Amino acid sequence: MTTLKDIQEVYLIGIGGIGMSALARYFHERGAKVSGYDRSPSPLTATLQSEGIPVHYADDPGLAASRPDLVIYTPAVPAGHTELTHYRDRGFPVLKRSQVLGMISKELFCITVAGTHGKTTTSTLIAHILRESGYGCNAFLGGISLNYDTNFWSNERGVAVIEADEYDRSFLQLEPDIAVLTAMDADHLDIYGTEDVLRDAFVDYTRQIRPGGTLVYKQGLPRTGEMGGEQKIAYSLAEETADCYAADIRVVDGGYAFSIKGPAWKVDDVVLHSGGLHNVENAVAAVTVAHHLAIPPEQIKKALASFRGIQRRFQYLIRTDRLVYIDDYAHHPEELKALIRGAKALFPQKHCTVIFQPHLYSRTKDMAAAFARVLDEAATVILLPVYGAREAPVPGVDSGVIAKEMKLEE
């Protein structure tokens, strides 16, 4: 297999995915010729094209790169995809996105963030602090940073911040020096089957930590005694028995002010302009990593104060005295609960309407009752049809299975 530094041309099947587009930008910035396929146009593919990366939307080998040094595909692409089969049958090097990220992680000092929720915000917060403080990093993110309008950036420093995706066990390709673990709630049961098997994978993720490395994990997670990492640091929103936690939390203009306390350190008067107490907890994890890297407290504070958030993560689209409209990608019951409770806490006098589109038929089927319990906390709920993404429709599974579980008021 050709090493990463020798690759001159890359072709990506599913280039419009958030993780795939980060890899496209990575190779493009390194000077490689990059092109790709996606099923349909999107704002992200349009941006890639504006950056000089050709994208087409027909599954046609005649439109694809003729002799790429590397073909990368996302596991969301069907096994019978014509272009994917074309390259495999002709002996081209074909790797999953996770395998390529694994190769990158082996070349750099690697900070990875995993968890069934919280990983996009936490990884972006870490990368933002490293960038704004001047420490520097290469960032491979699962969302678009509103500060920089991208999910990837590079730096000459040999450090990477990588969002570690549990889907398809992708994160087991990574070899972190610092691994963060935010949550282990049941998800992707179409892949794992049971919650116990999912937890096995998260434990295995921590065992990928390099010798001498560090695990930063949310206090209260199960099976922490089985996890890897020579040093283990527990964080929490406000539980003082954790190694690191937030104190003196105050609501300030739709965001929060607080202090972060560690075993023998403290960062006072932190301001975070992001809604939801879950984002304060994510900030605690990010600051814990930054302190571990010896970034000075004043630089950490300045970076957090300038953090504008991530597209579709508690993103304010309208914010007036009359109306507040928040866009959020919450697609798991725990994420949805954090969103609804966060919004109601920040705006207690407003009527809370939730417009919810379930993501994936399998998740809707497995978690209908849990979604219903959370949605019952809103004053008004509008359910949209299921967004199937990579999945084909499942007979009998639609938004109605959630509605049937809700305590609908007469």
Characterise the protein shown here.
31% of the residues lie in helices and 24% in strands. The chain has helices spanning 18-29, 43-50, 82-89, 97-107, 119-132, 189-192, 195-206, 277-292, 297-305, 333-346, 361-375, 400-403, and strands at residues 9-13, 33-37, 55-56, 70-73, 94-96, 109-114, 138-145, 150-153, 159-163, 178-181, 214-218, 231-236, 244-252, 255-261, 266-272, 315-319, 324-327, 353-356, 380-383. It is built from twelve helices and 19 strands. With 410 residues, the chain is of the alpha/beta class. The model has no long low-confidence stretch (mean pLDDT 91). Helix 5 (119-132) packs across helix 8 (277-292). Strand 4, helix 3 (82-89) and strand 5 (94-96) form a beta-alpha-beta unit. The strands form four sheets. It has a ten-stranded mixed sheet, with helices on both faces.
Q: End-to-end span in angstroms? A: 64 Å
Q: Which sheet architecture does the biggest sheet show?
A: 10 strands, mixed
- Please provide the count of β strands: 19
Shape: globular
Uncertain parts: none
Overall SS class: alpha/beta
The order of strands across the largest sheet is: 8-7-9-6-10-11-12-13-14-15
Summarize the amount of helix as a percent range.
25-40%
Q: Figure out the total of helices.
A: 12
Radius of gyration: 21 Å
**Beta-strand content:** 15-25%
**Mean of pLDDT:** 91
